């Protein structure tokens, strides 16, 4: 049974009543995280504002249909809306190619899991951002959103095999980039 006095329930009640201060509170609480999510999927920042605005409009219009499922369900719901808006944007305005890029640069040694402790998070996120569109979208959905290949295939209208292939290629490319970065740092010392 949900606790009626929880801050999340109180905010939700105010959101359903369409209180402007509640919507401002929701925006202030989650806009930074939602912006970060958008940045994981998009190379440029130009359209993030539009995507977030469209997402909040959808939230506003559909808050009545939201079903509270326990603590954190509101956050999960708004994140799902933002991801769906990003994917819709990518499908509509960006050519999402599922790369068949030759991997001649990426050798077998890059199949191993790299040590990430000496790679700054900002650098790693930049490497992810620079992946080809198809690799990046599948990687983000699988790694950050915990989607299965079946779910990804449905979201992107591709086969499960294509999803798995794109993820594998994304990982290999990232391992290669991480190893290159570490080698460069090592040589710079």
Label this structure with key terms.
189 residues; single chain; 66% helix; 2 domains; WH-like_DNA-bd_sf; Rna Polymerase Sigma Factor, Chain: A; Arc Repressor Mutant, subunit A; mainly alpha
Describe what you observe in this structure.
With 189 residues, this protein is mainly alpha-helical. Helix 2 crosses helix 3 and helix 6 crosses helix 8. It has two domains: 87 residues, Rna Polymerase Sigma Factor, Chain: A, CATH 1.10.1740; 81 residues, Winged helix-like DNA-binding domain superfamily/Winged helix DNA-binding domain (Arc Repressor Mutant, subunit A). About 5% of the residues have low confidence. Belongs to the sigma-70 factor family. ECF subfamily. It comes from Chryseobacterium vrystaatense.
Strand % is under 5%
User: How many structural domains are formed by the residues?
Assistant: 2
Poorly predicted ranges (pLDDT <50, ≥5 residues)?
101-110
* Percentage of residues assigned to helices: 55-70%
Q: How far apart are the first and last residues' alpha carbons, in Å?
A: 58 Å
Number of discrete helical segments: 8
Name of the CATH architecture of the largest domain: Orthogonal Bundle
Let me know the CATH homologous superfamily of the largest domain.
RNA polymerase sigma factor, region 2, helix turn helix motif
Helix-strand category: mainly alpha
Q: What shape does the CA trace take?
A: globular
Largest β-sheet summary: none
| Cα gyration radius (Å) | 19 Å
Element string (H = helix, E = strand): HHHHHHHH
Question: Might you state the CATH topology name of the largest domain?
Answer: Rna Polymerase Sigma Factor, Chain: A
